[in-house]
Each structure stands twice: as structure tokens, then as C-alpha cells.
Amino acid sequence: MSFDHDTVTGFAKSFGLFYLIAMSIGVIVYAYWPANRKQFDHAAHSIISDDEDRPCP
Amino acid sequence: MFNFHYRLERNAMGLVLAIVVVASIGGLIEIAPLFTIDETVEDAPDMRVYTPLELAGRNIYIREGCYACHSQMIRTLRDEVERYGPYSLAVESKYDHPMLWGSKRTGPDIARLGGKYSNEWHVAHLYNPRDLVPESKMPAYRWLMRNSLKIGDLGEHLAAMRAVGVPYTDEMIANATADAYGQANPDSTQAAGVTARYGEATNVSLFDGKPETLTEMDAIVAYLQILGRLTDVAHKTEQASVE
Amino acid sequence: MIQGTWIIQRGGVGMVALLTALERTYAAIILVFVICVGVAMAVAGRGDLMAAHGWIVALFGMVVMAVLLRGIDAPEPWEERFREYYDDPTKVGIILALIWGVIGMFVGVWVAALLAWPDLTFDAAWASFGRLRPVHTSGVIFGFGGNALIATSFHVLQRTTRARLPDQLSPWFVLIGYNLFCVLAATGYLMGLTQSKEYAEPEWYADLWLVIVWVVYFLIYIRTLARRREPHIYVANWYYMAFILVVAILHIVNNLAVPVSIGHAKSYSLFSGVQDAMTQWWYGHNAVAFFLTAGFLGMLYYYLPKRAGRPIYSYRMSIISFWGITFMYMWAGSHHLHYTALPHWVQTLGMVFSLVLLVPSWASAGNALLTLNGAWHKVRDDAVLRFMMLAAIFYGIATFEGSFMAIRAVNSLSHYTDWTVGHVHAGALGWVAMITFGSLYALVPWMWKRPALYSARLVELHFWLALAGTVVYVFAMWNSGITQGLMWRTYDQNGTLAYSFIDTLVAMHPYYIARTVGGLLFLAGAVVAFYNIWMTISRPAPVDEGAAADLPVEPPAPRAWAQAGE
């Protein structure tokens, strides 16, 4: 396979699209995966809990 | 306990890897093809490199931040071509390390400034722009007239440029200092070497009007006079339609 | 002021005393090394501007060494320190950010004035527009923004992981080392040292130094995350991490250059022409994305929910927008090169991704505003929270405008004009500075254990100065940019261009004055902020230590404004 300009741009144009779609699906699945819900809720609330301002021992 | 920590660390490193992969692929896909672009870029066999004096002038242009207000990139738009000249081609800046395309036109584009005005005009304009253009916003660069030009190390500059891909010959590098002096002093013995090495068309001239000293003004004017004239490929090729 | 000096002295010794003897020794070794490198630069760069920088490096090292030596004999810190977070670098970072902010904004007003009255250069090379402009841009982006990012990231990182920073030396190395980079950058521009790459102007040795600093910064993050006591990494840290990692990639690639010699400050960029242009704007646009957006979104996702006392509206949305921003920004840089010699397909790609980018951007802005939904009374009463809300609004405006301007046809009008400058400042003043001031106002009383800021009224004053300044500035630039863009392309009935370039420049003059006024208002606000925070710090801490420990995490609502609003 030769690395001339047309080949490289052709690859960039086609692969880029697949990569974009796969990546979007992956992120949405991760964000909405039911089992992840609990840890997301916990994380969202964790910063505003009124614990004292100290590191865990 | 060990497992617990191990899992935590792996997650953090996983996040790091994911960020790096996701972020770098975008840039890679877009930029990588540009490095094979030479195959598609216009050919300019007549193109010459910057002379040592012009390169010194270019470095002054960079030092003073001129690129913040002047672009050197005429876009493929009708009004720009009519105002400034043929639109810029990629090949025209192939020896520009770094490029100075610019991003803002507080002053006009100067991609094709070379030869448009006389040396005297440039000297007077740089000394105080408002003497010639009363409404101008450009700073007065009087110190360029006062500062003598540093030419002793220009050979090293040329060598560094060669290291990044500009075809300077050993002879050009060895004679860089003499050539810089000769280009600004047409009556000196060094002047002949400049045209021998950089071509008959090279602008050998008393740029700042003063023969005795080599000032930064000499260098910057020499640079401004070469803008758009390293090759005339843009004037020769049929320009595609502009928008 | 005498009181202030006393605080610096006491603070300096106190902060050194908290380092262990081993850390003090390492610090001394590093400083000796820095001083030696500075002297070596001064010797190698004889007759070149690098020598001046060598002396600056050496002097910088000596000043830090002097601070260190004052406390070098302090007794070993007690073990109790491990029960507290390590906040000294954050405190110093906040102050440095404010100092750089005032300097950077002052120079900004100066360069704005230079465009209205160009003779303010006074025939001094260092005071010319081209040399001062990067002092302004680097001063506000790297000095103000960067220090604020480092300071807040150390704070957020510890709170969200519930772990103390891994050691006490490396955060200082990052903070002080980073400021050495900023000093080299700013002094270099004044002397005429620049690579001419916008927002990446510092020369090769400063760039190398920043790489070292940045690696240590990254290691602090990773080491603290490895020690974390929360299983899930809070999303603010994702943004800070993206900021650190991607800025490292961008910085290294865009600054590849060959120095003239080891004794020359000047270098020649590895790339040329069209490749250099694409690399530069890939860097330039993503510096906006990962320095000025991702980092400050990290701030937003922590300080806004914290101050409002409400969790982020949708945590899932914040994850989706994070990956959207991380992925798509990287493609958008080429919209800076529409209609240039860059291949057409790359321009189109940049445009398309810039448009899609609006989705994750608005998801972030909407997420922030929806978090405040139901707490509008707090926004009304608390100017600090209002800073954050305004930041989210301006973030939404600026990202919409950015996507719009990336459309080729729009860009043909807007590019090279003041519209771009106006857009950048809508983001920089409206988004970056507002979220920073909001976060710092929230953070200062927590860090110095004060019940509240010195004056809530001054925060209120700052809010209105900042808003007025931003609006005046942005409207002036919209007007001047669109006017000039249209004048450039106007033809008369004979089919020739109607205006000379100078005609269009004359038309800019009133807007340049208005812009200077807008900038001056914003600068005045920053000075008020500096005074208010300084007074908060220098006011003695509450006398009763026991009572101080019982203070609520949340500072009480500022009373002065509550009354004024009724």
C-alpha cells in the first residue's frame, strides 16, 4: 500500500466518520448504562455533602 | 487491599489513555495528510531562498510582532484578489519557518508588498507612518534606524534553516555575513557574491539610504521588498475562480 | 501595606516550615540546579538575548531560594498535617493568578489604547504594540488563567478524591516552575523574543522547561488519583486531566523547532508554510478548547454545584459533553484557515466539526444553568454565584458565535477583522474570567478559613463592572468587525472597490476608543477583586480557634446585598 496523498486523505475521510460514530455510540451507552446510574448519582452528590473538610484517613 | 488499589490505578490510567487516544486521533487524521501534500502542491522551479539580509529582516518582522496586524495570505475571494493581487499559493510559503500567514488585518495584507513602493517610501514609513499616512495606526519604528544589524552569526541561522529543510548551500552558509553586508552596499566588493549565489534578480540596494552602516532598517526593508517575489508562480498560473 | 508585607513574610516561613527536612533539601538542590542553568544560559548566550534570560532565571532561583532559606531551620512538621488537605500552593496560586490578571489586563488596556492613539509607544521598542500584545495575551491566558487552573485543580483534586496531595514539594515545583515560564514569556516578548506562533510565542528553552513542569503536574494528578478514597473519579477531574494531557500534546508538537545554536534564543520552526499553518491553528484552536474551555469547565463543574448547594443537573450529560468536546475540538482548528492555501477538504472538515461542536458545548452551558434552576433566589442574592451563572451564559453565547463564524461564508466576512477579537473576548472576559472570579471568590474564604469575603458589596461592584466592560467591549468589536468586513468587499457602481484600506481603518477609530473604555471597566473590576481578596486574607483570622473549626463550609449569604435587594 502506497502512502500517496489520495490514499491518506481517503483513509482520513472514511475512517474518521466510522470513528466518530463508534465513539458517540460508546459514550452514550456508557452514560446511560443502567448499572452506572448509582455511581453517577453518588458522584454528583458527593461534592456537596457536608462532611468536614479533611482527607479520609 | 492490593487489588483494590490496583483497580483504582488502572481506572485512572484508563481515563488518561482514553483522553489521549480520543484527542490525538482527530489531529492526526487532519494533519497527517498535509505532509504528503507536496505531491499536489504547485511546482515552482524558479523559487529562491531568502538571502541572509532578508532572513535577518524577517526575524525583525517576527521580533516586532508585525504579524499581529498584517496578514500574508490573500484568500480566494474576489475583493481580496482585486485589492492585494493573485491569491496566495501554498508553495509560496514553503521556505517560511515559521509561516507568517497572520490572523488579523489591523493593517493591510502584505503578501505581495514587494516592489510596490520604493525603499525610500518604506524607510520614511517605518520611521513615522503618520508622515505618509496621517490616519495610520502603525507604531513608529524609529529604533530600526538606530540599531545596527547583527550579522556575525547569520551563517548559523542559515545552517539552522537548512536543518529544517531549506536548501541553503555550504557556500551560502559560509558567506552569509559577507552577503548580508553586500546586499545593502551595492558599491562594495561583497555585492557581486550576492547575485552570484541568489540570482541576478536579487535586490542589491542601499536600503536605508546610508552606505556607511548596516542597520536593522536595511534588513527589514530588504525583507518587505521580497514579499511575494521569491517566485512568480502565482502570477503565471491560471487562477481558479474566486468567490 | 506594612501589614501585607508581614503576612507575606510570615506566610513564606510558615509554608516552608510545613515542608519536611527532606523536601526542603530537595527544594534547595532543585533551586541550585535552576540557578546554575541560569548562569550557564547567561554564559552560553553571551552577546545574545539569551544571556538576559539566563540572568532572569538565576535571579528567579535566588529569590525563591531566599524564601526557602528563611525557614530552612524550622522544626520538622508534625504528623497532624496528614489529617489536613495541603492547600498552601493553592493559596499562593490564587494570589499569583490575581497579580497576573491585573498585569495582563492592564497591558490589554494599553494595547487597546495604542490602536486608538498609536503614539503611546513613546519611541521605546518594548512599548510597541507588537511586543506588548503577547504580554497581554500570555499574561491573561497563562498568567491569570493558568495559575487559577493550577490553584483550583489542586483544591478540587483533593476534595473530590478525599486524599491529600501525594507530597508537598511537587505542587510547589509545578506552581513556581510554571510562573518561571510565564516570567520568561513576558520578559522575552518585551525584549523581542518570540516564535511568532500565536499563544505559543515563548522560545525553545522556555518551552522545554514547561514540558518538565507539565510532566510533574500530570504525575501529581495521577498519584493523587491513585490514592483516592472515592471509587468514582468526579467529572471535574476529567476536564482537568484533559486540560493537562492535551495541552502537553499540543505544546510539544507545535513548538518543535531547531535553535540556531545552544547559545541562541532564536529558533526556526520545524514545519513551514501550509503544514506550519495547520499545526499552529490545530494548536491555537485547541489551546482555546483544552486550556480555556476544558480546564475552566472543570472549575464550573465543581464550584458551581458547590456554591449553589445543588448537585449538577445531569451528571450523564456532563460525561457525554466531556467526550464530545475532547473528540470534536481536535478537528475544528482548520476553520481558522478558510479560503487560504489549505486544501479545501480540510477546511470543510473543520467547518462541519465546528458546527457539531455546538451540541456538547450547549449541553455544558445548559447543564450549568439547569443546575441553578430552582435556586434563582441564591443567584439573585449572591453575586459570586451570579458570576458563575453569567459565565455559563457567555459560554453558551461564545460557543454559538464560534460555530457560526466557522461557516465558510460567514468566515469570509469575519476573518481578519475585529469580529474575531470580539468573539475571543466574549469567551475570555465573559466565560473564562467570570468563572475564574466566581470560583476564586468562593474559594478564598474556604482556603483562609474566613467566615466570608471582606466585602460583599465590592463583589457586587465587580460584577457590574465586569459585565458592563464585557458588553461594551464585545459590542464595539462586533460593530467594527462587521463594518470593516463589509467595507472591504463593497463595490461602487463602476464595479471597483469602493473603499481604500485606510478608509476602513478610519471607520474603526470610534470603536477602538469604545473598546479601550470597555477594557478599562473590566480592569477596574479586577483591581476591586484584588483589593477585596487581599483584605479578606489580611484581616485577622477569627480569634476563637475552636469556633473557627465549627464554621460551616458554605459562607453565609452576603447580608449587605440581601438588604439592598429588598
UniProtKB/TrEMBL annotation, chain A:
Keyword check for Transmembrane helix: yes
CDD domains, A to Z: cbb3_Oxidase_CcoQ
Domain of life: Bacteria
Parts of the chain that traverse the membrane: 15-33
Keyword annotations from UniProtKB, A to Z: Membrane, Transmembrane, Transmembrane helix
Pfam families recorded: FixQ (PF05545)
Record-given protein name: Cbb3-type cytochrome c oxidase subunit 3
Organism field: Mycoplana rhizolycopersici
Upper lineage: Bacteria, Pseudomonadati, Pseudomonadota, Alphaproteobacteria, Hyphomicrobiales
Automatic annotation (TrEMBL), chain B:
Entry keyword set: Heme, Iron, Membrane, Metal-binding, Oxidoreductase, Transmembrane, Transmembrane helix
GO molecular function: oxidoreductase activity
Record domain Cytochrome c: where: 52-184
EC main group: oxidoreductase
Keyword Heme part of the UniProt annotation: yes
Lineage top rank: taxon: Bacteria
Transmembrane portions of the chain: 12-35
Annotated Gene3D superfamilies: 6.10.250.2250, Cytochrome c-like domain
Pfam families for this protein: FixO
InterPro entries on file: Cyt_c-like_dom (IPR009056), Cyt_c-like_dom_sf (IPR036909), Cyt_c_oxidase_monohaem-su/FixO (IPR003468)
PROSITE patterns: CYTC
EC numbers on record: 1.9.3.1
Protein name (record): Cytochrome-c oxidase, cbb3-type subunit II
Lineage: Bacteria, Pseudomonadati, Pseudomonadota, Alphaproteobacteria, Hyphomicrobiales
